[in-house]
Protein backbone atom coordinates (compact mmCIF):
# COMPACT_ATOMS: atom_id res chain seq x y z
CA UNK A 1 0.00 0.00 0.00
CA UNK A 2 1.29 3.47 -0.84
CA UNK A 3 1.83 5.93 2.00
CA UNK A 4 -0.47 8.93 2.32
CA UNK A 5 2.05 11.35 0.87
CA UNK A 6 2.53 9.33 -2.28
CA UNK A 7 -1.22 8.96 -2.82
CA UNK A 8 -1.91 12.67 -2.40
CA UNK A 9 0.94 13.41 -4.82
CA UNK A 10 -0.61 11.13 -7.43
CA UNK A 11 -3.97 12.86 -7.02
CA UNK A 12 -2.32 16.30 -7.19
CA UNK A 13 -0.65 15.37 -10.48
CA UNK A 14 -3.99 14.16 -11.84
CA UNK A 15 -5.65 17.39 -10.67
CA UNK A 16 -3.01 19.65 -12.23
CA UNK A 17 -3.32 17.72 -15.51
CA UNK A 18 -7.11 18.06 -15.33
CA UNK A 19 -6.80 21.81 -14.78
CA UNK A 20 -4.59 22.11 -17.87
CA UNK A 21 -7.07 20.12 -19.94
CA UNK A 22 -10.06 22.14 -18.67
CA UNK A 23 -8.63 25.55 -17.71
CA UNK A 24 -11.65 27.66 -18.59
CA UNK A 25 -14.07 25.29 -16.86
CA UNK A 26 -12.00 25.09 -13.66
CA UNK A 27 -11.16 28.80 -13.47
CA UNK A 28 -14.74 29.82 -14.24
CA UNK A 29 -15.94 27.59 -11.39
CA UNK A 30 -13.26 28.88 -9.01
CA UNK A 31 -14.20 32.48 -9.81
CA UNK A 32 -17.59 31.84 -8.18
CA UNK A 33 -16.03 30.70 -4.88
CA UNK A 34 -15.00 32.92 -1.98
CA UNK A 35 -11.31 33.87 -1.83
CA UNK A 36 -10.62 31.56 1.10
CA UNK A 37 -11.98 28.53 -0.73
CA UNK A 38 -9.97 29.45 -3.81
CA UNK A 39 -6.85 29.67 -1.64
CA UNK A 40 -7.57 26.24 -0.15
CA UNK A 41 -7.89 24.78 -3.65
CA UNK A 42 -4.62 26.31 -4.86
CA UNK A 43 -2.89 25.43 -1.61
CA UNK A 44 -3.67 21.78 -2.27
CA UNK A 45 -2.59 22.03 -5.93
CA UNK A 46 0.77 23.66 -5.23
CA UNK A 47 1.83 22.12 -1.90
CA UNK A 48 3.96 19.02 -2.00
CA UNK A 49 4.98 16.28 0.40
CA UNK A 50 7.99 15.31 -1.68
CA UNK A 51 10.17 17.53 -3.82
CA UNK A 52 8.83 17.93 -7.32
CA UNK A 53 8.92 20.56 -10.01
CA UNK A 54 5.61 22.33 -10.48
CA UNK A 55 7.12 25.73 -11.27
CA UNK A 56 6.79 25.19 -14.99
CA UNK A 57 3.12 24.17 -14.59
CA UNK A 58 2.40 27.19 -12.43
CA UNK A 59 4.15 29.69 -14.73
CA UNK A 60 2.41 28.34 -17.81
CA UNK A 61 -1.03 28.42 -16.18
CA UNK A 62 -0.47 31.86 -14.65
CA UNK A 63 0.84 33.52 -17.81
CA UNK A 64 -1.90 32.08 -19.98
CA UNK A 65 -4.76 33.16 -17.65
CA UNK A 66 -3.61 36.26 -15.73
CA UNK A 67 -5.53 38.64 -18.02
CA UNK A 68 -8.76 36.64 -18.26
CA UNK A 69 -8.87 35.62 -14.55
CA UNK A 70 -6.72 38.22 -12.75
CA UNK A 71 -8.18 37.73 -9.25
CA UNK A 72 -8.06 33.96 -9.42
CA UNK A 73 -4.50 33.95 -10.78
CA UNK A 74 -3.37 36.33 -8.03
CA UNK A 75 -4.75 33.94 -5.41
CA UNK A 76 -3.01 31.07 -7.20
CA UNK A 77 0.24 33.07 -7.26
CA UNK A 78 0.10 33.76 -3.52
CA UNK A 79 -0.71 30.11 -2.79
CA UNK A 80 2.20 29.02 -4.97
CA UNK A 81 4.51 31.47 -3.23
CA UNK A 82 3.63 30.18 0.25
CA UNK A 83 2.85 26.51 -0.29
CA UNK A 84 5.06 25.24 -3.11
CA UNK A 85 7.94 23.42 -1.39
CA UNK A 86 7.16 25.50 1.71
CA UNK A 87 5.14 23.03 3.78
CA UNK A 88 6.30 20.56 6.40
CA UNK A 89 4.18 17.50 6.93
CA UNK A 90 5.17 16.43 10.45
CA UNK A 91 2.78 13.48 10.50
CA UNK A 92 4.31 12.06 7.32
CA UNK A 93 8.02 12.87 7.38
CA UNK A 94 9.30 12.08 10.91
CA UNK A 95 8.78 8.34 10.60
CA UNK A 96 12.00 8.26 8.57
CA UNK A 97 14.05 9.80 11.41
CA UNK A 98 14.61 7.40 14.33
CA UNK A 99 16.03 10.08 16.66
CA UNK A 100 12.91 12.22 16.09
CA UNK A 101 10.72 9.20 16.84
CA UNK A 102 12.53 8.53 20.12
CA UNK A 103 12.57 12.16 21.37
CA UNK A 104 9.04 13.08 20.33
CA UNK A 105 7.22 9.94 21.39
CA UNK A 106 6.23 9.43 17.76
CA UNK A 107 6.25 5.67 18.29
CA UNK A 108 3.30 6.13 20.64
CA UNK A 109 1.14 7.14 17.70
CA UNK A 110 -0.93 4.24 16.47
CA UNK A 111 -3.51 3.76 13.80
CA UNK A 112 -6.95 2.85 15.04
CA UNK A 113 -9.36 0.71 13.06
CA UNK A 114 -10.49 3.68 10.93
CA UNK A 115 -6.94 4.48 9.88
CA UNK A 116 -6.78 7.74 11.84
CA UNK A 117 -3.63 8.43 13.79
CA UNK A 118 -4.06 9.08 17.49
CA UNK A 119 -1.77 9.23 20.48
CA UNK A 120 -1.60 5.90 22.30
CA UNK A 121 -0.24 7.42 25.53
CA UNK A 122 1.81 4.35 26.37
Structural notes for this entry:
It is a single chain. The protein is mainly alpha-helical. The protein folds into two domains: 4-83; 90-122, no CATH class. It is built from six helices and two strands; from the N terminus they run ααααααββ. α1 (4-21) packs across α2, α3 (35-46) crosses α5 and α4 (55-65) packs antiparallel against α5 (70-83). Mean pLDDT is 75; it is low at 1-5, 90-95 and 109-122.
Keywords:
2 domains, two-stranded antiparallel ribbon, 6 helices, 5% strand, globular
Briefly summarize what is shown:
This protein is mostly helical and 122 residues long.
Strand order of the largest sheet: 1-2
Count of individual domains:
2
Shape: globular
Order of helices and strands: HHHHHHEE
Q: Let me know the largest β-sheet.
A: 2 strands, antiparallel
Query: What proportion of the residues form beta strands (DSSP E)?
Result: under 5%
Q: How many helices does DSSP assign?
A: 6
| Count of distinct strands | 2
Task: Detail the topology: elements first, then pairings.
Blueprint: H1 4-21, H2 23-30, H3 35-46, H4 55-65, H5 70-83, H6 98-104, E1 109-111, E2 117-119
Antiparallel strand pairs: 1-2
Helix pairs in contact: 1-2, 3-5, 4-5
Amino acid sequence: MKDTGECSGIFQEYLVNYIFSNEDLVLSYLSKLKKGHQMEFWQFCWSTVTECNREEHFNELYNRNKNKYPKEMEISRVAFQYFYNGINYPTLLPYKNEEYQRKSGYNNYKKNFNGYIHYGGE
